[in-house]
């Protein structure tokens, strides 16, 4: 196996020059840089990344923990984070917590062993004190924990927009599907705003929460059966994800309810699938790409000692399609 000394000898430069090329430090002419890279390719030289990270005290790795990467929102957010991380010279260490505190804790310990430069937390099952004590550049998604910077969309405004549209469409009995409100998430503001707006107008509504596993599709089926069994006269639905909204569409077909004539449906997120299903889902659009970009930027700023905003709330918008 070729060593850094072999590369230096073949390229006709010093070991220090090869090291500077590898670590992008100091002035190196483009001719010398190209010669070193060509020699590395000829010798099939693989730099020791662990040794390099110890030398630089930087691994160029960012850890990302999400609850369920198969969920379209987290899949698209992960894609955006990876894209912007790579553009800034970072690789992504992706972990899927499945909302299991022990698993989340194990992944954090693994990230420490890999000397990640920062951690983006999209899964929040641990106690607040455990996040406080990490001593890493941290960014949380949709959760406020002390002074740790967070990225979220304007959840309150999203709930308002959904309520306003269903009111304008003349809905008189509205169901609201949301995650479990015992979870300390900023997304709970969607429910708060929605319920406040509906109450102001004196409109009847029913709120149905998932259990703690907010991504369990069997739970969605149970909630649909409960809603349509007890309240067959529902004429409007606001779901806090496009996936739940798609389950409402499925049940409406099963019960031969016309959309939007008999019932109007609004989702949340505006994942790609929201425009693919039929009828296409009216939804509250989160700026997923910008959320991913900003999360990476906040990690970098903490690493470089630059000033940053702790509270980062991005605007949402209503995207009206065929379900309303």
TrEMBL record:
One Pfam entry name: LacI
Q: Which UniProt keywords apply?
A: DNA-binding, Repressor, Transcription, Transcription regulation
Report the SMART domains cross-referenced here: HTH_LACI
Query: Matching SUPFAM superfamilies, A to Z?
Result: lambda repressor-like DNA-binding domains, Periplasmic binding protein-like I
Coiled-coil segments on the chain, per record: none
Q: Which domain of life is it from?
A: Bacteria
InterPro entries registered for this protein in UniProt: HTH_LacI, LacI/GalR-like_sensor, Lambda_DNA-bd_dom_sf, Peripla_BP_I
CDD domains from the UniProt entry: HTH_LacI (cd01392), PBP1_Qymf-like (cd06291)
In alphabetical order, the GO MF annotations are: DNA-binding transcription factor activity; transcription cis-regulatory region binding
Q: Where is the HTH lacI-type domain?
A: 2-56
What this protein is called in its record is: Catabolite control protein A
Tell me the classification of the organism that encodes this protein: Bacteria, Bacillati, Bacillota, Bacilli, Bacillales
């Amino acid at each position: 196996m070729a060593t850094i000394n072999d590369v230096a000898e073949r390229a006709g430069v010093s070991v220090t020059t090869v090291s500077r090329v590898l670590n992008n430090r100091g002035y190196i002419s483009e001719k010398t840089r190209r010669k070193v890279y060509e020699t590395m390719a000829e010798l099939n030289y693989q730099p020791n990344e662990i040794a390099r990270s110890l030398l630089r005290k930087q691994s160029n790795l960012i850890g990302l923990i999400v609850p369920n990467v198969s969920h379209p929102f987290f899949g698209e957010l992960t894609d955006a984070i990876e894209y912007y991380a790579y553009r800034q010279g970072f690789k992504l260490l992706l972990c899927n917590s499945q909302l299991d505190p022990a698993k989340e804790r194990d992944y954090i310990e693994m990230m420490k062993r890999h000397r990640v430069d920062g951690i983006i937390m999209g899964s929040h099952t641990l106690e607040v004190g455990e996040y406080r004590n990490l001593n890493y550049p941290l960014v949380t998604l949709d959760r406020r924990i002390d002074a740790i910077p967070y990225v979220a969309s304007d959840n309150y405004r999203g709930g308002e927009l959904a309520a306003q549209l269903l009111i304008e469409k003349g809905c008189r009995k509205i169901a609201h599907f949301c995650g479990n409100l015992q979870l300390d998430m900023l997304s709970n503001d969607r429910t708060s705003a929605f319920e406040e707006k509906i109450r102001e107008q004196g409109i009847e509504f029913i709120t149905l929460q998932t259990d703690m596993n907010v991504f369990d599709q069997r739970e969605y089926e149970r909630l649909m059966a409960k809603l349509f069994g007890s309240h067959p006269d529902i004429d409007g639905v606001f779901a806090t994800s496009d996936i739940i909204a798609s389950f409402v569409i499925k049940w409406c077909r099963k019960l031969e309810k016309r959309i939007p004539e008999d019932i109007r449906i609004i989702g949340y997120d505006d994942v790609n699938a929201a425009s693919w299903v039929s009828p296409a889902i009216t939804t509250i659009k989160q700026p997923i790409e910008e959320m991913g970009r900003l999360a990476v930027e906040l990690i970098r700023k903490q690493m470089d000692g630059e000033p940053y905003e702790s509270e980062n709330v991005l605007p949402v918008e209503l995207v009206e399609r065929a379900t309303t």
